[in-house]
Amino acid sequence: MEESSTIGMQNNMDLDKWTEDDVGSWLKHIGIKELYINKLKDEEVTGPVLASLCDNFLRKNIGMKSGQIQHLLSKRDQLLKAPQQKETGLNANDKEIQKDHTTEQSLDCESQAQQQNVPLQSSEYIDTLTWSEYCEFDNDGKDFRYIKHSLLAPETGTENLLVPCHEYKSLEIAQKLDSKRLQVKVASEVLRFACACMNMRSNGTIHFGVMDKVKGSYKHGEIVGIEVRNREDFVDALDYIEKCFKDSSEQCDARKCIRNPRFIEVIEKETTGKTYVVEYDVVPEVSIVKDKFYSVGVPKFHEKDKKIKLEIKVPYCRVGANTPQISTDNFVSFIQSLTKKDQQREEAECTKHPTTFEYKEDQRRKLSILLTSGRKHMDNSLYYIIVTNKFHPQHLEHIAFLVNMNTVCVFDFDPDSLETGLCAAFRKQKAVTPHFLHDYLNEEQSNLLDFSNKLGLFEKVSWIFCNGRNDFHKKEKPCDEKTWIKTKKKKLKKAVSFICNELLPRRSFIVLFMLMSDVQQPLVETFSEFYEEMNGHESLVVLSESKENYKKWSSLAQICCEISTLNEIAVTGMPLSHMNATVQSIQLSKNQTTRTLPVSNGGVCYLKSTDEAMLHSLEIISVDQCENTDLDIMDQNEINATENRFYHGGKIDWINFWLSDKHKCGNIIKRDAFHEANSMLEKIISPKPSRPIENVNIYHQPGSGGSTVARQLLWSWKNKVRCAVVKQCKEITTVSEHAVKLREYEERDQNNCFPVLLLLEDQKTEDIDNLRRELRNNITSKNITSSALCFILLICNRTNDPERACRMLPSQNVAITHKLSQNEKPMFSKKHKELEDQLELPHPDYILTFVLMSKGFDKDYIVHFVRNTLSLIDRSSSVTHLIRFVALLNSYVESSYLSMSHCEAYMGIVSYIPNMQYHAFVDALSEEAKLLFVDLRDNTTHFSSIRIIHKLVAEELLKQLSKDLPQSAIAKALIQNNVLINHRFGRDEFLKFIKALVIRRNKKSRGDSEDTAFSPLTEHITITEGLQKAIELLTNAYNSLGKDGIVAQQLARLLYTNQKFEEALEWAEKAKSFLPSDTFVLDTLGQVYKRWFYHLFDSVEEELLSPERGVEIISTALKAISAFRDSEKTPKKDTVSLNSSYFGEVDVGCRLLKFLTKVDIFAITTGKSLLLNYLLTEYIPETVKKPWQKFHSLLKGLQKGLLNALERISEDLCYFQTDFSEEDVELDASDLEQLYRPREWLTRKSKVYAEFFCKQLDDNNVHTDSATAVPSPPQNSQFQRQMMTYKLGGGNVTSIMSLIYNKDTKASGDKLERILDMYHPLQDLDPEEVGHFIYCQIALNCIKPGSSKLQTHKHLQDLYKWSFKKGKFHLSINGLYLATLLFWPETDSELNPFDSKILLTAIDHLQKYTEEKIQRKRRTVDHFYFGKAKGLNKIVHKSVIEKQTGSSERKEKWLGGEVWKTPTVTKLLKRFDGWTENGRLFVKCGDKEIRVSPRYSASMPLGYENVTFYLGFSFGGVVASDIQVKE
Q1: Residues 1494, 1523: contact at Cβ < 8 Å?
Q2: Dist CA 723 CA 712 (whole Å)
Q3: Are 1127 and 1082 in contact (CB under 8 A)?
Q4: Which among 282, 689, 1179, 1317 has the fewest CB atoms less than 10 Å away?
Q5: Are 1250 and 1284 in contact (CB under 8 A)?
């Protein structure tokens, strides 16, 4: 009441005086959501603020959706215009009079409203009231509803005797009376009205709950509804008939003419209380009332004596909309007119049609237009969402049109659907994934791509059981309507919001409501949610075979959408069988329940669509690919458009090949590369294949047609082998599993199947290797014969230098460049002429991509084309801005694009042609822009998007456009555009492109033309526009991407590279604050200090420095080391190979040692001795004691820290392969040598480290001052020996192992012999030195087996056991690995109990250590294998095996397992007997069973089998390779 009064006063209050509460009340009454009202109150939005609100504030600060924003701003504008409209055309006096009158009227209404408890509403609210239809006359109105505050037509008189007259009564006061008084009130109104209708011989309806006059803010005819406490009160009111009519005859007639009350529910959104309009129909049929005249004495309740009294019986009639008593003056004439009225009534009843006339609309056309958005036919350009209730059995025979649709998901309210309903019938023809509403909540806040993949969207139809399932467990049982609204409505709302606001852009999908059985409220709620989220009824379609179902549904749904609008989007009364036939007649392609695959016996087999959906990581190309396309529907214009799109620059589709084969369009040129690759495939698929997995590599320049050639190969081989494209972003294990299933599908002999030709496009090398390994594992586990060709990997990758890649392996690699060969040029020229003659091109340059290729991508032609095109466009238009943005992305980010939804949002396109929902974006483009853009649909996000037709064109566009606006300004405008950055559709992909734009570095290893230290854009701006512009670019990216830590890291790198160390430090600290546990970010902080230290060091001009002068330099170096050590302590990423911070620590440490020698006290002759003793003992020279007081402990730990870092690097290099992921390359700041040649780097740095201390030791020997009280280490000490071995390359296991790989075996052998000479006498060695001595013995035996320095295997075993007593080396990773090499027995009898304990302990500890260490996706290295020889010769190094297999295709031979088939290798290595137990592998060692890890887990046979294998030794434990079932 209080709020209503407030609204009333607001109407007459100046907007400038409105408070936050006033604004809140107004917002509530115009229908704004409570959530947004509260947020606006928090933002202190008063009247003046309301007047200036804008779209951006509401969207960004309040988070409002578009529909709510549009509604609020529209109502606000009406509110602002209202005072101006009232004042228009009035003079000063008139305005004053009007103001006084308005104020008086307003206060009067308010006072009256307060007395009568009637709410007051603003004039804007009244203007929004909608008209309502009447409930059907003389009908029970079972499925009819009124909407509160809608309007009925004004009360009417008796114009037509059969068309009812209407009278309204609000009963706003009377509805609260007790039963007795209420019955009297109702009876008096009904009987008076009925008497009038009977006398007038006219049908009529009296409505209770409808305003009968303007009152307050209520309009005449406004539906307000009344509370019905007891329906019997309204029924019993008719019992006054017998009391009020004159005699039994009239009473009987009244009973026949007055129908029982009809209770029509009044619905209001977000309101649970029920109110009704109560209606009484009066039907005075001529057979009842002929020649009769009626009078009635209506009852009245007298409050004084609390009694009911009847008024005098008088006749009534209808005069217009009133029911007056027939006056005495008119009595006679009225009696005389009854005969004529009877005659008119009789004629009306005789001529009455049995049914009302219905307009016969063309339902076939309407259905087609609604489902295709006005297109000629239905194809895959639109997605469909189906909402349905229970299908009856007879309906399930006619669902083919639904199966053929490109359906994303189904909202199914039938809990039995999976067993007996639509889902059961649908899934027989198409694969579905059952879901519940809660599956769409995304509680983990995953990004769109991950969440879509988790739900399997776009792979199978997501079937959402909105009201549970009867066949599922108790948690998801169906419930009644009220319970559903309480428990599941919110989940439905979130699911609908996700689909409409995140998953699918506007106008890319249609929501189809199927009303197949009795309608309930949840189905209506679903419509309401879609209507609200989609901002209207466009893209909504309703199909109902039953008119009754539709009638009930529409009466409930009208609360959110007018009945007239619902009728526009509905097709009702059309049998489902007719709908099925009609829709199928416009569907371009039909769902194939089966497709055909070739089989090894020369025939074909059927691939069920449900089985195909289970192989969702593959796009399978069948023998009958595209045969489901209906050429009768696809006319020549569409065929031409399909061909045009390809030659305009679009990606080739299978339909292009199919149309070409059918001679419906021209042939597709086969480039020379096609014939080369085809010949390779023919050789591979020869009668005698050599290996189970082969590959053909296609390297192509971007835009040279590599993808087309690859698909041409699949198309030409689809009848001979099984072909498939590996989809992007799929798990390698899943792809492998699906590829194996595809190979064996409907084949009887797994050793005699057709191979699978798998196309992999732009996949990472590590993923290809992993796939090959997984496929090999599967082949082995299935015991498929090793000579059977199973898989051919067709690898198609972009590179800027394909010819160089081809030269690396010409037998497997094919190069495709922009340059045409002499054979190709005539074919392209001929095709060019054909296209110009045959196709109706919108512009001569429309097929520019093909023209460019025909001309060999001539640079001058591109420059000329771009210049001419740009001369015709407005440089300041939004379309030109888009061209700049897309050209920038396409020039610098491979495979980038801008989603169509982003483009429309940027250009402010929200309108579209009514009832035809196609992208208005295309119409907004100029003809020149249409030449430059090509549209595509991304396979991962399923969004329509655009890119420049070719990368070379994009680069030239950017070059010419940047003359007006530099690239930094274009990038800034792109990155800072809030519309693009915050647009929700395709946001993850867009932000990924923006990140790549400022972060991704060029690498030759990825096919780029050169290596860059930063992103090419950053480097270009730095060179052409200056460093400051590049810094601004990254700063803008940092802010726009939400203070992104990785961008902050890149900024720090850019700044320290350009010697802006203070700023670099600031940004590195920012990056650390966002990513405190990120290895690369912490390493970057170390790099800042490292480069700063280098700069300070290099800037020193003095030859000698004082200790005070060195304070800043030493402090910076120690901060670098500290930062690197922080990075070393963080958990390693899955992708990280080596922690580069250890490298950084060694770099800084070695250079710091060099710097210390420049400090004056340590630069003199005796100073070198002082420095060594300062670093290695407790001694502190007096000169440095005070200046360096903060550094003493750190500097004294420098040598041990360096040694530890070198050992950790060595351990990692021994343990793992040194593969680097792309993420490492992007973020790592290491030197190239550290990345690609870490073993060489380690050897070099170990030498630098050792030479420093060796030199100091040598100087100590020469210059010894006996008078100095400086302690010095003993000569020939362990430390000196350690430094000398480091200097020679024997300081750690990695350096020792690296000597085996040295091609100069003589030099390596001599070096190892010198190292061994250092380890004498042996009894003075500590356990770690003993270990290094034994490693050197093993390495020397591999390089120089005849050396006199070698000791026997038995002696080395004894030496290892002797070291047990002196330390814990045997528990280190190096000691454990050495034990496996030394103590694995040649025969079971050889192993004594003590040796057995050593071996078993080592294996157990190695496995435990491996479980802790391997948290990354990296592979351990098998350094050695067990051979057939005796003694040390049984330890065979991997390099020896590689020499036996040759250098050609070495990697493929290891991955393919061919290494183990090489005769020299089989003679060299020993096969061990073992057995499997359900996935575990064991071998007997002495009397003990030892579990061995398989090199490839899937290579083991299932169950319990006796097997043989080769034994390898890695730092992860003993490993089995080439596991074979024992025959």
Answers
A1: yes
A2: 11
A3: yes
A4: 1317
A5: yes
> What's the token pair of residue 636?
């020549």
3-state SS class at 814: strand
Smallest CA-to-CA distance from 951 within 993, 888, 998, 1009 is with 888
For residues 1444 and 1464, the answer to whether their CB atoms sit within 8 Å is yes
Q: Which of 1466, 1502, 1508, 1512 is nearest to 1483 (CA)?
A: 1508
Distance CA 1064, CA 1092 (A): 10
Task: Taking the CA atoms of 824, 827, 829 and 832 in sequence, report the sign of the dihedral they define.
Answer: negative
Q: Residue 1279: what residue type? A: F
Question: According to the model, what pLDDT value does residue 1447 have?
Answer: 57
pTM of the model: 0.70
In order, the DSSP letters of 636-696 are HHHHHHHHHHHHHTPPP-HHHHHHHHTTSSPPPP--HHHHHHHHHHHHHTSSS-S-SEEEE
Q: Is 206 helix (H, G, I), strand (E, B) or coil?
A: strand
User: Is residue 1387 over pLDDT 80?
Assistant: no
Alpha-carbon torsion angle 63, 67, 70, 76, nearest 10: -80
Map residue 116 onto helix, strand or coil.
helix
DSSP state, residue 705 = S
Q: Is the confidence at residue 347, as pLDDT, over 60?
A: yes
Look at strands 594-598 and 604-608 and give their pairing.
antiparallel
| CA of residue 68 relative to chain centroid, distance | 26
Residues 97-135: pLDDT tens digits?
333 333 333 333 333 333 333 333 444 444 457 788 899
User: Residue 612's pLDDT is what?
Assistant: 87
- Give the span between the Cα atoms of 522 and 482, in whole angstroms: 9
* Alpha carbon distance, N-terminus to C-terminus of the chain: 93
More confident residue, 1414 or 644: 644
Helix pair 521-533, 489-498: axis angle to 10 deg? 30
Task: Name the helix (H) or strand (E) containing 1488.
Answer: strand 1488-1494
Is the Cβ–Cβ distance between 695 and 674 less than 8 Å? no
Q: Is the pLDDT of residue 924 over 90?
A: no
By C-alpha distance, which of 388, 426, 416, 394 is closest to 518?
388
**Cα separation, 3 vs 337, whole angstroms:** 54
- Looking at residue 758, its pLDDT comes to 95
Contact between residue 805 and residue 799 where contact means Cβ atoms under 8 Å apart: yes
What are the backbone angles phi and psi of residue 865, rounded to the nearest 5°? -60, -50
Chain centroid to Cα 1256, Å, comes to 61
Residue type, 676: E
Measured distance CA(862)–CA(858) in Å, rounded: 7
Three-state SS letters, 141-191: CCCCEEECCCECCCCCCCCCCCCCEEEEECCCCHHHCCHHHHHHHHHHHHH
pLDDT at position 596 is 92
Length of the chain: 1527
pLDDT digits (tens, 9 = 90+) for 356-382: 444 457 888 889 989 988 878 888 888
Residue 759 has pLDDT above 90, yes or no: yes
Which amino acid appears at position 25 of this protein? Answer: S
pLDDT-based confidence at 1419, cuts 50/70/90? low
For residue 1067, pLDDT beyond 80:
yes
The phi and psi torsions of 897 (rounded to 5 degrees) equal -160, 170
Give the separation between CA 1167 and CA 905, rounded to whole angstroms.
Answer: 72
Q: Which of 754, 1231, 1214, 837 is nearest to 1013 (CA)?
A: 1231
Tokens 């069973």 belong to residue: 1489
Rounded Cα gap, residues 1228 and 1136, in angstroms:
10
